[in-house]
Amino acid sequence: MNLFNRLLLPETIVCGAHAFERLGACAAGMGSKALIISDPVMEKLGLVRRCAQLLEAASIASASYTGVDTEPTDRHVAEGLERCREQACRFIVAVGGGSCLDTAKAVAVMVNNDGYIGDYAGGKRRFEQPPLPLIAIPTTAGTGSEVTKVTVITSTATDEKMMIAQPELLPHTALVDPLLTVSCPPATTAATGIDALCHAVEAYLSRKANPLTDALALAAARDLSANMLRAYEHGGDLAAREKMMTGAMIAGAAFSNASVALVHGMSRPIGAQFHVPHGISNAMLFAAVLEFSLRDALPRLAELGRAMLPELTAERPTEAQWAAAVIAEIKRLCKAMQIPNLRQWGIEREAFLRALPRMADDAIKSGSPANNPTIPDRTEIIELYKRCYDYDFN
Fold first, then answer.
1. Alpha-carbon gap, residue 75 to 103, rounded angstroms
2. Which of 55, 168, 235, 237 has the highest Cβ tally under 10 A?
3. CATH superfamily of 186-389
4. Per-residue confidence at 175, pLDDT binned at 50, 70, 90?
5. What protein family is recorded (predicted)?
6. Banded pLDDT at 202 (limits 50, 70, 90)
7. Has domain 12-181 been given CATH number 3.40.50.1970?
8. pTM for this predicted structure
C-alpha cells in the first residue's frame, strides 16, 4: 500500500442541480472584481453573461476573456493573463469545458508568478507565490479539472502538450451543476464520458494509488459506466447527467491524487501531433492499453469489474473473466458511441508512422507511463501506437 499524508481537494465543492446559481454567494470575500474565462460557445449560450449577472447581484464587478479554443494553449494563457492584469481582477471564474478550466488555472497561478507557463511543466520549476482564487464551473462531465491540481497547456511553438501538476493549480471552489450539461451534444458526451472513465480506471491501476483514491476511483467507475450510454442517447435525462457529472468530478479527484498512467501518456502526443480531442484520443487507446497491461493489472482490473458490472456477480467469474469483462465493456461503450480508431479519424498512415518516434519520446517524457502496472519501453509504446491505428472495437 502506498503511503499518503493528504488528499488535495478544493476548499468548497457545491454539487447538484442549480449549483451554478450559488456563484455570487461563493464569490463573497474573494475580491471586488472577477475575470470570467470562457470560450465563444459559452458566450453565445449566455453563460458568460449569466456569470456576470450573478456576480453583479453580489456587488462584484467583472471583466471577461472568451478567447479559449478547443485545446488550451500558451497563447490563451498569455492573453488571459494580460486581460486579468489590465482589468486589475482579484479572482477568476472559469465556465466551460476542460479547456476553459485548464486555461483559467494557468492564468490564476501565473498572475503572481514570473516566467513562462511552460517553465513549470514536468516539475522543472515550482510556483513560489499563491494563485488568485479560482471558481471552476464545468459544463461537461469529463476532465474533472474543477477538482484537480493539474493543467495541460499546448505550446504553440512546438505543439507539445505540457502537463503541469502542482497544488497551486487546485481551484478554490467548484460549482458542479448537471443542468449545464443537458444540452451537451452526443459526440461531446461520448468523448468527455470516456475521458472521465479513463481517469477512474487509470487512477485505480496507478502505481501511486492509495486507499482513499481507490474508493473514489471505484465509485466513479461504477457510476460512469452505468450512466454513460443513457446520457449519450438521452441527453435530457437529468438523473443520468447528474451521475455522469459527479462521477467525472470524483474521478478527477482520484487521478489528481493518484496520477494517470499509460493511456494518458500516449494520448497527449496524439492530440498534439494530429489535433485529436483529448477524450477521443484516450478512447482510441483505452482498450488496447488495458490488454497490454493485463498481466500485471489482473487483480485490480477484476475489482473494477465487480464495481462496473455487478450484474455478472451471479455467474461467479474468475479474476481473468472479470478483467476481460472490463475490457469488453470499454470496447462496447466505444463502439456504441461511435468512437473511431486513428485511421477512421482520418490520420494518414505514413504521417502517423513518421510521428511515432517523437510521440513515443513525448509519452515517456510525460512520466505517466511509469505509473502503469506494466511499464513499457520505447519500442513497446511504438508497437502499441501501431496496433491502435487500426484497432477494432468489436
1. 10
2. 55
3. Dehydroquinate synthase-like - alpha domain (1.20.1090.10)
4. very high
5. Belongs to the iron-containing alcohol dehydrogenase family.
6. very high
7. yes
8. 0.95
Residue 392, pLDDT > 80, answer yes
* Three-state secondary structure readout of the chain: CCCCCCCCCCCEEEECCCHHHHHHHHHCCCCCEEEEECCHHHHHCCHHHHHHHHHHHCCCEEEEECCCCCCCEHHHHHHHHHHHHHCCCCEEEEEECHHHHHHHHHHHHHCCCCCCHHHHHHHCCCCCCCCCCEEEEECCCCCCHHHCCEEEEECCCCCCEEEEECHHHCCCEEEECHHHHCCCCHHHHHHHHHHHHHHHHHHHHCCCCCHHHHHHHHHHHHHHHHHHHHHHHCCCCHHHHHHHHHHHHHHHHHHHHHCCCHHHHHHHHHHHHHCCCHHHHHHHHHHHHHHHHHHHHHHHHHHHHHHHCHHHHHHCCCHHHHHHHHHHHHHHHHHHCCCCCHHHHCCCHHHHHHHHHHHHHHHHHHCHHHHCCCCCCHHHHHHHHHHHHCCCCC
Residues of the chain with CATH 3.40.50.1970: 12-181
Please give the C-alpha separations between residue 213 and each of 175, 202, 219, 327, in angstroms, as whole numbers. 21, 11, 10, 21
Residue-wise pLDDT for 42-55, tens only, equals 999 999 999 999 99
